[in-house]
Design brief:
The chain has 386 residues and is α/β, with parallel strands linked by helices. It is built from 18 helices and 5 strands. It has a 5-stranded mixed β-sheet, sandwiched between helices.
Length: 386
């Protein structure tokens, strides 16, 4: 088999790669555009941790190629440095340094000098976390507590509102983690992110569907009261099953207003087992704080009418293949994969262990709550109903 020659990708080709990557296409799909193996594309994408590098621009005061060509022609004609500088409206020292750093008057070539200047200018600015070790240490500690970069950034802004040296954006945290050449956060901290991958992926990369089966006598989500839709009143929950290997699962519940999370251990996904577990769990909460439950169309809630009769809690069902209608719960299930990765058997976790995980989630600040925690909001709701 004849070996293909190595390809040197142009800037426009690299731009196309990044466009496709940001749209969620895989390395294999992108590589097909160039009739190459996916490893050829991976080398370019992985160099910056899957994060598209910022477009480079010349500084406004930098010498242009046109000016360098003027310098080259003038040197050939025997013009002095002062006359060249006067003709370009530049300082003589600028012209002198330009000629000296590019081989002197005899060897100066405009195109070579321009390319050399472009390469010399490629010096990345030291990132904020590298400049402020105390801030980097604080970020690392929060990452180890399973906080997301966005939660850390919001908490820092809330905790140190008047000190910019104690604040950092979530994007800077991500870039420092995925671009290890920045050297401020250890690569091992990637394991504490919600999704532990070596490169940052587009949010469009995968979309979960929720076509788990059909059930009868459902009340549509479209019939929910307005107070549920706008999250104005606490007491309305979203639920789903989080599946593990060996036919294991956990029931996950999220309160829409406070984003408070509760996890319920269920021994099986058959409707009797799930409904029994949900009924038992519902009795732990004040009636005012558990008025409705929104679920997808999974068969585990086929006996939803028994749940409503036993608890007086109305169950609403999402439209088919519309997981976004339970957005808070879908987001929470993504967070929970940090604790229960796909492929593990979750049946071995006790209710006490599940409560501990829920407590960690509930003590994280949330952007949607103005960086208060679900626990804080839930306690406020309990106080109001009490």
């Amino acid at each position: 088999m004849k070996r293909r020659t190595r390809i040197r990708y142009t800037d426009s080709q690299k731009g196309l790669m990044w466009d496709r990557w940001q749209k969620g296409e895989s390395l294999h799909q992108i590589a097909k555009l160039f009739d190459r193996n996916h490893t050829s594309v991976r080398g370019i994408i992985a160099a910056t941790g899957g994060i598209r590098p910022a477009s480079r621009r010349r500084a406004a005061r930098a010498l242009s190629l046109v000016e360098r060509e003027h310098i080259s022609r003038s040197l050939v004609a025997g013009a002095s440095i002062r006359s060249i500088a006067e003709g370009l409206g530049r300082a003589p020292s600028t012209i002198s340094r330009e000629i000296a750093r590019n081989g002197g008057a005899e060897h100066y070539r405009a195109s070579n000098a321009d390319q050399a200047a472009w390469e010399r200018a490629h010096r990345p600015k030291t990132c904020k976390l590298a400049l402020h070790p105390a801030l980097a240490k604080r970020v690392a500690e929060k990452l180890q507590q399973q906080w997301s970069p966005q939660q850390i950034a919001g908490w820092l802004m809330r905790t140190f509102p008047d000190d910019a040296t104690c604040q950092v954006s979530h994007e800077t945290i991500y870039r420092t983690l995925f671009i290890q050449s920045r050297g401020a956060l250890k690569k091992e901290l990637l394991a504490h992110l919600r999704r532990t991958r070596a490169m940052r992926r587009s949010r469009h990369h995968t979309q979960k569907t929720a076509d788990h089966g059909r059930i009868c006598d459902t009340v549509s989500i479209r019939e929910r009261p307005a107070e549920v839709e706008d999250r104005a009143v606490p007491g309305h929950w979203e639920g789903d099953l989080l599946f593990g290997s060996s036919n294991s699962q956990i029931a996950t519940l999220v309160e829409r207003s406070t984003r408070y999370v509760m996890l319920v251990r269920v021994g099986s996904k058959d409707t009797k087992t799930v409904i029994d577990a949900l009924i038992k769990h519902s009795r732990q909460l004040p009636a005012q704080l558990y008025q409705s439950l929104t679920w997808d169309r999974g068969k585990e809630l086929a006996d939803h009418r028994r749940f409503t009769l036993a608890t007086d809690i109305q169950v609403y069902f999402c439209d088919p293949q519309s997981p976004w209608q339970r957005g808070s719960n879908e987001n929470t299930n993504g967070l929970l994969r940090q604790y229960f990765p796909k492929g593990i058997d979750v049946s071995g976790f006790t209710q006490t262990q599940l409560d501990r995980v829920a407590r960690q989630l509930n003590e994280r600040p949330r952007k949607t709550l103005k960086f208060e925690t679900p626990t804080e909001r839930y306690r406020q709701a309990v106080a109001l109903t009490g």
